[in-house]
């Protein structure tokens, strides 16, 4: 299958210098924060690509670049073969916008509190000129509310009259209104109770098969991503360190960081506690470690890791389905990252 989404060498640098400092101390060096660098992956039609990583690893920055809310400082995103970069054909990009939607983490912040649910849901339809009069709007909103298991009468209510889960259902209805093919979901259930989380995830899966949707599904929670994704990318300090089919990632994680994330998933069947805590701190992204940025936390570190940045290279057997950025894997020092010694 031809990919629907092609992300190539995408990067975003933020200038976090404090301009006032330049006036006090002359020629203070600029402080640059690399939020994302060299991010490359594709998503096939009807696929769910999961993206995991700790807080600050660059997931939201990447999500916003993919939908065009944040301009990249390098690289490019193509959707259905059309470049989303600001220098590309504006008419073609305008036609694409209807086909791409985003769902955010916080349904409290992402819904306008002064608008009725029906107007929130119909907003993309207005924006893209897809409405044919009031009756059409009423019918379409009722249909969308039913799709997310809400009552058409709920359209008259305001966001504060709904629960967190219901609000996220409205955000989903809104995202679906323009008949998109591709939806970027940035931690869509992270603000919800666990029982409500499962309902929303199942709804999203049902809608995916009903409408043939393609998802970029972002979460810091590997268990949630496992439930949703066909392939998973693992991010660390703005870079992808491993991409693998979901099943392989859980069965045979290759990057030592992936292993660390897996070991930190709570063992629900037995103790309910994480088998192993994630060790060490994420380095400051303004002054990242040289070489492999994970090397200060890595149990398999050797000389080369401190000097040379590893490239994301095919690993394993299945024709490049798995890619890993790790010198230890590349040199065959480790094939499947072994479990860390369990300490209690
Ligand atoms: P979280 O799990 O907390 O949502 P994340 O993986 O989504 O984290 P981002 O929000 O993409 O991470 O942030 C990545 C890095 O970029 C962080 O170090 C963050 O402080 C920085 N950053 C994000 N947005 C900006 C901005 N507008 N200006 C400066 N720095 C930013
Ligand atoms: Mg985020």
Task: Name some characteristics of this structure.
eight-stranded mixed β-sheet; binds adenosine-5'-triphosphate; 344 residues; binds magnesium ion; 33% helix; Rossmann fold; alpha/beta; globular
Q: What does this entry look like structurally?
A:
This protein has 344 residues and is an alpha/beta fold. The protein has 13 helices and 12 strands. The chain has an 8-stranded mixed beta sheet with strand order 6-7-8-3-9-10-12-11, sandwiched between helices. Helix 5 packs parallel to helix 7, helix 6 crosses helix 7 and helix 7 runs parallel beside helix 8. The longest helix has 18 residues. It is globular and about 70 Å long. The termini are far apart. The structure holds adenosine-5'-triphosphate and magnesium ion. This is Oligopeptide transport ATP-binding protein OppF.
The CATH level-2 architecture of the largest domain is identified as 3-Layer(aba) Sandwich
| Mean of residue pLDDT values | 89
Helix content: 25-40%
Would you list the SSEs in sequence order as H and E? EHEEHEEHEHHHHEHEHEEHHHEEH
Strand coverage percent: 15-25%
Main CATH class of the largest domain: Alpha Beta
Bound ligands: adenosine-5'-triphosphate, magnesium ion
Instruction: Name the CATH homologous superfamily of the largest domain.
Output: P-loop containing nucleotide triphosphate hydrolases
Low-confidence stretches: none
- The termini sit apart by 47 Å
CATH topology of the largest domain: Rossmann fold
Number of strands: 12
Query: In angstroms, what is the radius of gyration?
Result: 22 Å
GO molecular function, one term: ATP hydrolysis activity
Protein name: Oligopeptide transport ATP-binding protein OppF
Main location: membrane
InterPro entries: AAA+_ATPase, ABC_transp_ATP-bind, ABC_transporter-like_ATP-bd, ABC_transporter-like_CS, Oligopep_ABC_C, P-loop_NTPase
């Amino acid at each position: 299958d031809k990919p629907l989404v092609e992300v190539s060498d995408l990067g975003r640098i933020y200038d976090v210098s404090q301009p006032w400092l330049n006036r006090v101390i002359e020629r203070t060096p600029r402080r640059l924060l690399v939020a994302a660098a060299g991010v490359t992956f594709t998503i096939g039609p009807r696929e769910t690509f999961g993206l995991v990583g700790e807080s600050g690893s660059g997931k939201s920055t990447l999500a916003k670049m993919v939908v065009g809310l944040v301009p990249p400082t390098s690289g490019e995103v193509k959707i259905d073969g059309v470049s989303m970069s600001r220098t590309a054909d504006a008419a073609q990009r305008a036609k694409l916008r209807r086909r791409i939607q985003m769902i955010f983490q916080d349904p409290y912040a992402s819904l306008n509190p002064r608008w009725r649910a029906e107007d929130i849901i119909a907003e993309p339809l207005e924006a893209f000129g897809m409405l044919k009069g009031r009756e059409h709007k009423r019918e379409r909103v009722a249909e969308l509310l039913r799709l997310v298991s809400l009552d058409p009468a709920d359209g008259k209510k305001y966001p504060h009259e709904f629960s967190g889960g219901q609000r996220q259902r409205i955000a989903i209805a809104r995202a679906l209104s323009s008949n998109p093919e591709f939806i970027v979901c940035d931690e869509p259930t992270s603000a919800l109770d666990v029982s409500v989380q499962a309902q929303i995830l199942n709804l999203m899966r049902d809608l995916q098969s009903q409408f043939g949707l393609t998802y970029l599904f972002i979460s810091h929670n590997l268990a949630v991503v496992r439930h949703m994704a066909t392939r998973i990318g693992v991010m660390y300090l703005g870079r992808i360190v491993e991409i693998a089919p979901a099943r392989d990632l859980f069965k045979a994680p290759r990057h030592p960081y992936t292993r660390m994330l897996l070991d930190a998933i709570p063992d629900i069947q037995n103790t309910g506690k994480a088998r192993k805590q994630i060790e060490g701190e994420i380095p400051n992204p303004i002054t990242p470690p040289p070489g492999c940025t994970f090397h200060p936390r890595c149990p398999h570190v050797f000389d080369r890791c401190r000097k040379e940045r590893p490239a994301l290279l095919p690993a394993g057997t299945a024709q490049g389905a798995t890619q890993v950025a790790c010198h230890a894997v590349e040199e065959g020092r480790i094939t499947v990252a072994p479990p860390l010694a369990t300490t209690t």
